[in-house]
Amino acid sequence: MSDSTTAPLSPVVLEAWFDLQCPDCLQALDDVRALREKYGDRLDVQLRHFPLAKHKHAYAAAQAAEEAVEQGKGWPYAEALLARTAELGERGEPVLMEVATELGLDAEEFDTALIDGRHLLTVDADEAEGKAIKVTGTPTYVIGGERLDGGQSQDGLRERIEEIADRLLEG
Fold first, then answer.
1. Beta-sheet pairing, 140-143 with 12-18
2. b vs e for 64-75, b when ≥16 Cβ sit within 10 Å of the residue's Cβ?
3. Furthest-apart CA atoms within the chain: distance in Å
4. ∠77-12-78 over CA atoms, to 5°?
5. DSSP states of 95-159 as a string?
């Protein structure tokens, strides 16, 4: 997702490779929020799409998140959708529209974007880049050229990200 949490010229970039139907990514939001709070505009957290084949609605969710970026609410949409991962798995794409409506997004434009596939290339590009850097599960983070896999365990992951961010900010 091209939406980030801070100005584009932040000194340290943290790429968060997420699947928006992934329960582990929902848990990872606590770490992302804590990192944003700790570092503010010194850390640019960028959401990148890596929809997993095992999540039937993740690819559509990634496209929906891109439309939310276009409408100025990329991160709020992603966070609201992650809070409903179980419901998305059960009910599917209607949940994407409900979240958009709840956030005050233009529902008609949102629906059109999902039908016409205008965000397919962005999602496909993220997925291809993720595969190229050997992302295999979500969440996965990239900071300072280091890839950190949170798909197996998130224990100690935030601390490792903080160590890298502190080092990069000092240097």
1. antiparallel
2. bbbbbbbbebbb
3. 48
4. 10
5. HHHHHHHHTT--HHHHHHHHHHTTTHHHHHHHHHHHHHTT--SSSEEEETTEEEE-SS--TTHHH
What CA–CA distance (Å, rounded) separates 13 from 119?
A: 23
Residue 28: CB atoms within 10 A of its CB come to: 23
C-alpha dihedral sign at 66, 25, 6, 103: positive
Burial of 128 by CB count in 10 Å (0-12 exposed, 13-18 middle, 19+ buried)? exposed
Q: Is the pTM of the predicted complex or chain greater than 0.85?
A: yes
Q: Pick from 61, 129, 132: which is nearest to 98 by CA? A: 61
**What letter does residue 167 receive in the DSSP assignment?**
H
Q: What is the pLDDT of residue 11?
A: 82
pLDDT < 70 positions in the chain? 1-10, 151-152
Element housing 31 (H / E):
helix 23-39
